Amino acid sequence: MTAALPSLALALLCLLQAGAQVPVQPDLDTEKFAGEWHVTAIASNCSVFLTMKDGMKSSMAIVSFTPEGDLAMKLVLPLTDKCQEFELLFQQSGQAGHYMGAQEKRNLRVIETDYSHYAVLHEVHHSEAEPSTALQLLTREQDVSPQLLQKFMELIPTMGLTEDMLAVLPKSDQCTGDIS
Description:
Layout: H1 4-20, H2 30-33, E1 35-44, H3 47-52, E2 59-65, E3 71-78, E4 83-92, E5 98-101, E6 106-113, E7 118-125, E8 132-139, H4 146-155, E9 166-168
Antiparallel strand pairs: 1-2, 1-8, 1-9, 2-3, 3-4, 4-5, 5-6, 6-7, 7-8
């Protein structure tokens, strides 16, 4: 156990350093960014995601901002027999486009968005058990163009992820009626 601690500390340090080098959307306009998004592709090294990714479908993310500037995200995930909702709150970090989840020890960055078609999010989960990184492609419509998907795929290795960690999520209307 004690032999594993230095390597774990080194791995966490690498993640923290990698997180510091992740760009953010300059001057993120929260009003334009807020609203409904479809999660159309994800790349992650999270072991739970990797075991489930082949059965996943496109989910919905509803983004809003509190008066304090914190990012609130409601996720609606289509499961086999039901729709599962999650609500996440990320506190403003002081830099536009960079948010932190207090209890979950997550860093969320809006890397790039054009507000009306797509957004790319980078999330690092600083878990002692299993630190992980995720890159998400959000689109306003469920359809994603081949050019946009190619652009997203080119980002994957720059974030320390590999193409086998990618899931392009098939369309799903299963939970669209559950969004409020």
